[in-house]
Amino acid sequence: MREAQGYRPIYATAADTTITFVKSQPLRKPGKIYSYGKYLMVNEQGKGIHVFDNENTTSPKAVGFLKINGNVDMAIRNNILYVDHLGSLVSLDISDLNNIRTLTIIKTWTEALPPERNHYFECVNPKKGKVIGWESATLKNPKCYY
Amino acid sequence: MKNVLIVMIIFSGFVFVRCESDTASNFTITPTGKGGSMARFALGANHLYVVNNHAIKIYELSTDGTMLQTGSVEVGFGIETIAVRDNQLFLGANDAMYIYSISNPYRPSFVSRYAHITACDPVVVSGNYAYVTLRIGGTCRAAGSDALEVIDISNPQMPELIKSYPVNTPYGLGIDGNTLFLCEGNNGLKIFNAEKPNEIQQIKHYKDIHAYDVIPNNGTLIMTGDDGIFQFDYADLNDVHLLSHIKTQ
Predict the structure, then answer these.
(1) Which of A8, A25, B155, B230 has fewest C-beta within 10 Å?
(2) Which CATH number fits domain B116-249: 2.40.50.140, 2.60.40.2550, 2.130.10.10, 3.30.70.2860?
(3) A78, A99, A100, A145: best mutation site toward chain B, by most B Cβ within 10 Å?
(4) Does B34 touch chain A (CB under 8 A)?
(5) Residue B2 and residue A74: Cβ atoms within 8 Å?
């Protein structure tokens, strides 16, 4: 069996489309990282962002998890978090994590294809619903390539 | 939580970014975070630059956190990463490194294109040098060999290769002053002394961890990979050591 690193579609039916802050989650598939003041943000591929209090770098403490389906990238300035979320670019006020506020949503990406070219992906099955994002995955015998 | 976040604002003050706008004397101190080399988002003074496969999208940011898409610049194909330094954007693409000027932050303008073999490649910049990793094989479907290229960008219009070093499945990389960090996937994390760009010396190799990307930050390196988040103290290069490890489940 041939295995390849690539992308797997995330279907609307399986995803919660609102961004929420929930209790900390186990780290499973860490993606990109972002350092903001004493906070360390770790993307959970396609799922959201783990927030760690990293003031003490010898023992970072899990603060909670920003549930952002389809998320891959982030940037933060002045307590405003910019993220990709299900085909949109979203800005969020995270001054109070327990009361995060969505400020702007700009529809920006088409989700018909994976986020990067030159990668294998699991072919889309329209019966499963609308594709709202992609997660990286190890694929077995992938047939689609972009 | 509110108090914690007020503290966070104060603490984040030390992460300042020098932002140069059209008026060179205009100097602002902004609490901005720091991402790794694989980022597709880059913050300019008042703009967010996002790369997709073929273009840079430009979003104007307001102080209240709202934003507006103000433009888009077509670049080429296979753009993977973006980094900003001063008034320049550095794009890592499948077949080249691009430099764009954001002297006019609304309209990034082409400065140069440094072509290389087809590969997957983020780019980081320090001083007069850009460091680019080229990873072939896997999903990158190219021929050639994995390399770390050091490029002289003192004249951004004419980037020039200083030296190409053989490496092993490189992913993200980071540079802090003369210390270079290189993630080699299953081959681990390597730390180099890059004081002499044509004579980079390996200082340390952590072989048994999966390394994807790094953020060097004032003596503390944050590294992400399949095995979790590792932090290393590199304040003393003769005594680089592990600080913590957040394990994956």
Answers:
(1) B155
(2) 2.130.10.10
(3) A78
(4) yes
(5) no
The reported pTM is: 0.82
Average pLDDT, chain B: 86
Q: Indicate which of B2, B7, B8, B32 best probes the interface with A, i.e. most A CBs within 10 Å of its own CB.
A: B8
Closest CB from B31, B39, B67 relative to A106: B67
How many angstroms separate the CA of residue B48 from the nearest CA in chain A?
A: 9
Give the Cα separation of B158 and B163 in Å (integer). Answer: 15
The interface predicted TM-score of the complex, written ipTM, equals: 0.84
**What residue segments make up the domains of chain B, in order of their start?**
12-108, 116-249
Q: Per CATH, which fold does A17-107 belong to?
A: Thrombin, subunit H (2.40.10)
Residues A90-122: tens digit of each pLDDT = 999 999 999 999 999 998 766 677 877 788 999
Contact B229 A75 (CB under 8 A): no
Element (H, E) at B7: helix B2-12
| Strand ordering across the sheet containing B220-225 | B213-217, B220-225, B228-233, B241-247
Confidence of residue A70 (pLDDT cuts 50, 70, 90): confident
Decide if B108 contacts B98 (C-beta within 8 A): no
Which run of H or of E encompasses A48? strand A48-53
